[in-house]
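Reopening this one. Same input as before:
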Amino acid sequence: MESAIFAANAPDTNPAVLIVDDDPSVLSSLSRTLKREFTILTASSAKQATQVLEQSPVAVLVADMSMPEVSGLELIEMVRPRHPEIVSIMLTGRLDQQIASDAINRGGVFRFLSKPCESERIKAAISDALMQHRLLAAKRELLVKTETLEAAFSAMHDGICIVDAGGRLSAANGRARTLLGAEECRLGEPPPRALVQDSEPTGEIPVNDHLLQVSSADLSTGGRLVVLHDVTVVRQLEQRLRMEASTDPLTQISNRRRFLEFAAEQRARAVRYGRPISILMVDVDHFKKVNDQYGHASGDDVLRRIAAILAAGVRSTDMAARFGGEEFIALLSETATDEAALIGERLRQAIAAEPIPSAGGAIPVTASIGLATAVGADVDIERLIAAADGALYAAKKNGRNRLECAAQADLVVAV
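Same output, byte for byte:
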């Protein structure tokens, strides 16, 4: 008849030792001997041992080799796959080479003890087994931490390279290999020189169609940790946002905001070097009639066409922009009145030269242009725009489809 499961009184902080023997006197003797130093659980059969293992954490299993139905070795074999953390000790009345070989190969037995066993000897064996249990637990914990770190290292969005004290690449995660190319990430060889510069921060560098922000830190081992942050998408987004903030969405030329920024930059140069700046104000003639007769979609086509003519008709050092509605503006840097008038007249002729096709028929388009020029210290952008706008009004008043120049007296800045 199977005996009841027994737990000897011992500190709860100690890992449990499970003793399995079908002889009640052996269980009783071992429990009395060991309970002052260890937390002892007992079972009289493999079945009871399995129940104990399901209910309580066990660090060491001490099993009798010769038990009916299921031997101690068979029990250890059963327990090992489900509880690899348990360290096993075998009690046996006879020990030969074959038994020892089977116990080690099949059960991974840690220690063999012959029956009867001296108390000090079994205490020492259990103490060694508990130490082995702690070592195995620490090894498993370290393995889990290592695997976690390796997984995190591999899954990081940033590229990570470790360069040893000798200047050789000792580690590179998958992201680094993607960014730099597998050929550049050969372990044991020097990494790309740009990634291990001594200066901090190393800044941004273009590599394989990527823009990488590179930073590094010295390691206590004498090596260097290099982090590669791909800022390609961020910079592209920033560029797109800058373009959207400075570009007219309909005509795709510069908007009023960007024009005024550019004009301020050019004014500073003109004042510093005493150079002229000319402003052209361009307004589509009878634009409301175009919208009314041909529709707003055709009106948009007209604006896009005029924007394209203006953008193509000024130099790379100049700027054409949509100023608002059907009104456009152009700044001609280092351009005096006579030359600016020739440019303006050429633009006016280009606009009037070719009707714009639409569903309602060809749309004849003309534009009126106002010109204002100032030189050096007299350059005041707000005054220039106002003067060019006044000249534009005169062009409208005098019949449209023409260019008028502002009076020079309107452009002199009072001292």
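So the earlier flakiness isn't reproducible anymore. For the record, The chain is about 45% helix and 20% strand.
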